[in-house]
Structure of S24 family peptidase:
Amino acid sequence: MENSKASHINKSKKSYRVSRPTQTGFSSPATHYTEPRIDLNDVLVENQSATFFVRVIDEAYEEFNIFEKDVLIIDKSLTPKDNQLIVVIQDDAFKIIRFSKTLNIEFQLWGVITYVIKYVL
């Protein structure tokens, strides 16, 4: 057998654990800030350059369960499919309609609604 030197495998020095305070008594109320925040752009947006967040300003779209102060996430790069909610420009105004291949109205597609973030207060 040949003499060869064995090398040790070192553990990674990265730690993904939240460090615990070493003080006694009550912990700081700011300890939850050490955790990463949820970024809506990472979670809900597929195409950042073509996605817009729009806040609804009235109750005109109750039929779609979209109310005042809800936030719509709209992707302009998507092609609408049957039964999806879309934002269109019609009569020089933005409107929300449910897409269907059998629609008999004229409109200009602005984008496809991918998420509705509800305002609950």
User: Anything to note?
Assistant: The mean pLDDT is 84. The first strand starts at residue 51 and ends at 55. The beta strands are 51-55, 71-75, 85-90, 93-98, 108-117.
